[in-house]
């Protein structure tokens, strides 16, 4: 009798755990949030060699384009001005 | 028998409650909007071997505050500025002799993570982490583009952050620095439907602007001419009010300056720095009054 009770209890616990798993906490049981993505290359990215013309930032909008040559990518239509980053402030107004 | 069913229900409730309280990733947008900005870098996450050192550094530099959670072996800190989530920091041990690089990971908005991953894979990318649901955040996958730059795609369950000017201390810009910007631009264009603008550049280098929703989202740039074998990567920039002053502060807080403050395109002043663990990021001084509205 005791053995039967224990078996039922075990089954109940197993079903309960499965129910918990399917209730949405699958990613967190035991392993936590798995964000293991250290960059695969060696320590110390080399940032030497940025000459005066090496510009990686955004522009202010409408800057000059250079559409010479053929490209692997599809270039934006020639008439399209280069956009900038959003300028609307969080309150909704644009800077003057 | 009733007692067994009671046990079953109790175990289910307790297990479920334990899981939910253990680690909830903060929603990107609160309250949720379901607005989408495909192609926008909507979140960044740092993997670092010393969470406490990283928190001290970024709190001192930008005034970020942190909410720490711990689940199993994972320590996670949600960084906020003025009540808005700005980043996630994850502690991950880096065994001695492991030469991988602590880094900030860019999450780019998509509508369908699985579809984006399939397209990326077909175009030569590697899937580093298969698509998965992160509760309260959304569905995400981590990829390496054909040149090897690591990035993530995210379908945020609460929508994407609005297209507003970043405040000082918030992320404002992302740059891909890669061995083949042309091919890379084509690759990212296929996934995010970017418009690509070719910009003037020095001989032997290329600078391309990737845009969506009529906003500049990122640039794709050649590796510097004298460093053609450096590893392609994404570099994210935080908006600051004074790049020179902030670069000095980085050093005072235990970080390093990798690229000294310099004038970039149309007057924005940038610097590239690294935190005490070596994770690189950029500083971008972006005065509010000078942007020109561009109409489509």
Account of the protein in words:
The complex is a heterodimer of chains A (96) and B (296). With 96 residues, chain A is mostly helical. Chain A has a domain at 1-25. Chain A has 1 helix and no strands. The longest helix of chain A is centred in the N-terminal third of the chain and has 24 residues, at 2-25. Chain B has a single domain (41-290), classed as 2,3-Dihydroxybiphenyl 1,2-Dioxygenase, domain 1 (Roll). Chain B has helices at 2-22, 51-62, 113-122, 181-192, 243-252; strands at residues 41-48, 65-71, 74-81, 84-91, 103-109, 126-134, 138-144, 150-156, 171-178, 195-199, 207-212, 215-222, 233-240, 256-263, 269-274, 280-285. In chain B, helix 3 packs antiparallel against helix 4. The radius of gyration of chain B is 20 Å and the shape is globular. Chains A and B meet through helix 1 of A and helix 1, strand 6, strand 9, helix 4 and strand 10 of B.
Assigned CATH class of chain B = Alpha Beta
Number of strand elements of chain B: 16
Largest sheet of chain B: 8 strands, mixed
- Roughly how many Å apart are the termini of chain B? 70 Å
Largest sheet descriptor of chain A: none
Side-by-side strand order of the widest sheet of chain B = 2-3-4-1-5-8-7-6
The structural domain count of chain B equals 1
Average pLDDT of chain A works out at 70
Q: Write the CATH homologous superfamily of chain B.
A: 2,3-Dihydroxybiphenyl 1,2-Dioxygenase, domain 1
Strand content of chain A: under 5%
Q: Would you report the number of β strands of chain A?
A: 0
What is the overall silhouette of chain A?
elongated
- Class by SSE composition of chain A: mainly alpha
Short synopsis of the structure:
The complex is a heterodimer of chains A (96) and B (296). By secondary structure, chain A is an all-alpha fold.
